[in-house]
Design goal:
single chain, globular, MucB/RseB N-terminal domain-containing protein
Length: 366
């Protein structure tokens, strides 16, 4: 990945596609009969979400994804049965969550052979892998905007997923009210987001909102033309009491490897250290189009050719479909929610659109 920077956009692009868009049948998590609730308009539900005040909660979350993608190589190095962050892109996963304010959060991704925890306690951020017996600590600066950013940047709670989906609400989005539901023993309204542009592969995003606390309890994503979810994340159990402070204190167990991380420097600083992460503009990342049919364009740069020899790059390319056209040649990752085109000159084109739209954009940028 280091020798071919464009490949680093592949998984994040997939993650973004998941949380702003809509397969295989994965069912409906934690839902029972439809309750009778006083009517609420879509605008009222949007206001409820924006004005909700939450002191704390804890609960169990089940997340399921089946995006119709090929089996990508395990780039994290984690073995089968481990609590691998990358597994959030596939299969069904169980997480435990605790929240006691924006600076006190904890998420535990449970695996059959271990778990991965992300713990935020004030300015301390810990990433713990029980399988690797390794802890990484970082001191959060005032400039940080995310409390527990992970390599794949996937949402770990219905709230995170809903926040990102709601960020897509603009004139390109149709907003309506769906059917009410009972989720994790709580009555909930349903807010439905749908692209107005039918060229998108996304059908609908459905957000179930707690009728009393106004907190998202479930988010479902449906591909266009399907009544089966491709991605969903939902509480199966939830408690709105503030968790005990002990849940946010982490002490590495004896014998654990502990790594101190310097964090991510502020890209906007004029005196940014050499080697610090680039901004999207500096990295050659641009967008074409708007709304749900936006195509993200990431150029590979001067070292793209060298990346062809990178072993991880070869593993990824080996499972993708070779394609070519007037735009050039490359490899295609095509799912039921999005498409990503990796060209041989090191660029990536990705969006919630068909491969044909990516080919058009690639030709325009040739």
């Amino acid at each position: 990945m280091n020798s071919r920077p464009a490949l680093r956009w592949l998984v994040p692009a997939a993650a973004v596609a998941v949380v702003v868009g809509g397969g295989a049948a994965v069912g409906t998590l934690a839902a029972t009969a439809e309750p009778s609730l006083p009517p609420r308009t879509a605008q009222q539900l949007l206001v409820d979400l924006q004005t909700a005040r939450l002191d704390g909660l804890s609960g169990t979350v089940v997340q399921s994804a089946d995006l119709g993608l090929p089996n990508l190589p395990n780039l994290s190095g984690a073995g089968s049965g481990t609590a691998d962050i990358a597994s959030l892109l596939t299969d069904t996963n169980q997480l435990r969550v605790w929240y006691s304010g924006p600076d006190k959060t904890r998420v535990a991704l449970m695996g059959t052979l271990g778990e991965t925890d992300v713990i935020r306690n004030g300015k301390d951020l810990w990433l713990w892998s029980s399988k690797q017996n390794k802890a990484t600590h970082r001191t959060i600066s005032d400039a940080d905007t995310r409390s527990h950013q992970l390599p794949t940047d996937l949402p770990l709670t219905p709230q995170e997923a809903a926040d990102r989906a709601l960020a897509a609400v603009d004139p390109t989005t149709e907003v309506s009210v769906g059917r009410s539901a009972t989720i994790a023993g709580r009555d909930a309204y349903e807010l439905v987001l749908a692209p107005r542009d039918k060229a998108s592969l996304v059908g609908q995003v459905r957000i179930a909102i707690d009728a009393t606390e106004h907190v998202p309890l479930r988010l479902e994503i449906y591909p266009k033309g399907s009544d089966q979810t491709a991605f969903q994340i939902a509480f199966t159990q939830i408690d709105f009491a503030r968790p005990d402070e002990a849940q946010f204190r982490f002490n590495p167990p004896p014998g654990a490897a502990v790594e101190e991380s310097t964090g991510v420097p502020e890209a906007a600083k004029p005196d940014r250290p050499e080697g610090a992460p680039k901004t999207a503009e500096e990295a050659g990342v641009t967008t074409v189009g708007e709304g749900w049919t936006t195509v993200v364009v990431a150029k590979g740069g001067e070292d793209a050719a060298a990346g062809q020899q990178d072993e991880q790059a070869k593993q990824v390319l080996g499972v993708l479909t070779p394609v070519s056209g007037a735009w050039g040649s490359g490899h295609l990752l095509s799912g039921r929610l999005f498409s990503a085109l990796l060209t041989d000159d090191g660029a990536i084109y990705a969006g919630l659109v068909s491969p044909e739209r990516l080919y058009e954009v690639a030709l325009e940028h040739k």
